[in-house]
Amino acid sequence: xxxxxxxxxxxxxxxxxxxxxxxxxxxxxxxxxxxxxxxxxxxxxxxxxxxxxxxxxxxxxxxxxxxxxxxxxxxxxxxxxxxxxxxxxxxxxxxxxxxxxxxxxxxxxxxxxxxxxxxxxxxxxxxxxxxxxxxxxxxxxxxxxxxxxxxxxxxxxxxxxx
Length: 162
Hints:
The chain is mostly helical. It contains ten helices and no strands. Helices cover 56% and strands 0% of the residues.
């Protein structure tokens, strides 16, 4: 069984839909974690595997499962800049405002790493720009630290638009 789980993680990483489909019923818990706490869904999404993520979600993977640090799939794709996968996750009920162990959110990741298409997507989906991480910083504060003027403008305009 250990080999199947290891191979299942690898299939999620590489987007091997054939393997995933053939073995998904053999995995008793789709939210099984590897040694870093990653689930197959986290692995698939972080590696840009849209269809693998869809397959796992359709089979019942927890869209809001976090790794040992509390990082979710939505946080990972916000850091990486994968809007199609973020849209998929949001469609499956991803919590836009979950905070990882240091209080960071998906919106904060997007703003910090210059993924401004993700900032827009998350704001449009209803992400809360007022949440503070453990040091008391908001997404706009983190964008300012990085010199991300476009994100700051989007984040500041979010209240005016609503």
